[in-house]
Structure formats: structure tokens, C-alpha cells
Amino acid sequence: MSVRPAHPYEVLLERHPGNPILTAAMWPYPAHTVFNAGATRLADGTTLLLCRVEDRRGHSHLCAARSPNGIDGWVIDATPTLRPDVEHFPEELWGIEDPRITYVDELGKYAVAYTAYSKGGPGVALALTEDFRTFERYGLVMQPDDKDAALLPRRIDGSFALIHRPMTDSGAHVWISYSPDLRNWGGHKLMLQARKGAWWDANKVGLSPPLIETERGWLMLYHGVRHTAAGCLYRIGLALFDLEYPDRCIARGDSWMFGPEEPYERGGDVGNVTFPCGTTVGADGDTLYVYYGAADTSIALAIGSIRAMLRWLEERNSEA
Ligand code: BMA
Fold it and tell me: Phi and psi for 50 in degrees, rounded to 5?
């Protein structure tokens, strides 16, 4: 049942009427669920989604789906695109999850940051690729417990920058770390904290898709988690960070701007979850295609405007 309020909030992301756009039923090999996909637009205009595919063991791998318009006509790799490589990376024993893709101009390659699920918990792993067919793996770059990571597309003051979400005794907050070579990481700084008390993002926050560079700053779509008596609610909020000092938060919205409403978001393996891991930007430089996992079961698409999000952030800026 979907109950619509009489006075709806401003809609910043419109769901595509064809949602969910990708489901396990479309997979060319046995798959339990497909969700939480990284996204990019290739040089020829093709949209590529690197989808998290979960099998009946409960373990995940990644599989590429390509479409000319980013909406339908998906061509899905016939076999897994990136599987756990347990022989060389035992940290991937229980699967690899939630990829975020960043094109790094300097390298002429895509960087894929993903969660490697080890016996010691989930950590952040990195791989580079030119074509999403062969991958150069860097292994674990952030030890457990850590996830929700993405690289920035360019160096900041001479260093690569990785956003990630370590779990500490003081909570689940977003951090940024720096590296000269993508292997050695330091200069850690806290970027965004989970709020406290009754806020919608009080219990956990994490980066959702990679940051989007705008003239006003780095735009972050982040997930905020609220623990309720009925389980967790995963919703999406907005924050803006300084272009040269990305740990400096310029603005943070007071409310979530997108969250579970439709039946395919409310129900599934993990109900009440909207979890974007990738976006693409339209040819106008403003239209944002947000690909999100719905209820840890399928992949859905919502479309918005970057300008409208920046305007909303100005109006709804609140305590960080
Ligand atoms: C998070 C991640 C996501 C998942 C979400 C909801 O912690 O593990 O992969 O979609 O929980 O289950």
C-alpha cells in the first residue's frame, strides 16, 4: 500500500515508470538478487552498470550490464564480470559488493572501489580497468570494518583521495583519506558525521554514489540510516563540500530527499532500502540519472536535476 500525503514535499528525484529496470529474472545465469550497481557512461555514450549479484550462498560478485540509453535494452555479461579472487585476495572470501566507479582522467582508467567481505569483516578494495573486461586489482586498501568507498576523479593538492566509511566505537561516519599511489593511504579526515538523537540520519551515514563535481563544490548523495522498532530505514540526503578542501562541509540538507515509498522499495530481501551506488550526468550537464538498489533485490532508476539539488541544499542547509 502506498499512502501519499495531501501536501507532498518537493520531488528532487522522479522514479522511472519502468522501475525496477533490472531484476534477477533478466540475468543470463542463476542469480538470487541484483542490486546496488555502480554506474558510468562510456566514451561511446553507452551506460554501463556494474551490478552486485547475490547468489544462493549469500555471496556477491559483480556483473556488467550495458544499455544505449541507460534505461532499457540492457545487454548483460553472460558470466560474472568480476568475481572474488580468493586465491590472491583471501579478503574476498565471502564476496564482493557495492561497487562505485570513478573515471580517472590522469590514468585513462576507471577506478572501481568495492566492499570485500572477509572473515574479519567488510573492507574496501580497489581495482582499475579500461574496459570492464580485465581488471588490475589493488586488493584491500582500507581494513575492516569499512565500506561505502569511492575515489575522487582527480588529485587534491597532489594526492589521490578516497572517501570511505569506517565503523568505529563512536559511530559510522564518512572519512576522506589521501594517497600518492593508490596503495598507501593517510592524511585521514572526518567529512560527515551521523547526527544524533531523532534525526533521519542519526544512526549511520555513508557515501552513496561517487561525489559529483559542480561549480559550487562536490555534491554528495549520502545514505542516512535510522534504526526503528521495525528495522532500518535507508534514505538519501544531500551535502556539499569545498572543491579544494573536500573535508570541509559547505552545506548539509536537514531532511532526506529520497527514500523508500514504492512497493519494490518497501518490500524485498531487505525492505525499506533505497541504496544508490552510481549516477550518470546527461548531455546537458544537469540531468542526473541515479541508479539505486531497491530493497536489496532489484535495480531502479530515478532522475533529477543537479541545479535543483544545489538550490534545495541552499534552502535546507542545516547543522552538520
Ligand atoms: C548496507 C550495505 C548495503 C545494503 C544495505 C541494506 O550496510 O551492506 O549493501 O544494501 O546495508 O541492507
Answer: -105, 105
User: Ligand 1 centre from 117 Cα, in Å?
Assistant: 12
Nearest residue (by CA) to ligand 1, atom 2, is: 98
Asked if residue 273 lies in contact with residue 265, where contact means CB atoms within 8 angstroms, the answer is yes
Collapsing DSSP to helix, strand or coil, 210 comes out as: coil
Ligand 1 contacts (CB < 6 A) are: 36, 97-98, 234, 270, 273, 275, 293, 296
How would residue 3 be classed by pLDDT, with cut points 50, 70 and 90?
Answer: confident
Q: Which residue is closest in CA terms to ligand 1's atom 4?
A: 296
CA distance 221 to 227: 20
Provide the pLDDT confidence category of residue 2 given band limits of 50, 70 and 90.
low
In the chain, what are the domains?
13-315 (2.115.10.20)
Q: How far is the CA of 175 from the centre of ligand 1 (A)?
A: 18
pTM above 0.90, yes or no: yes
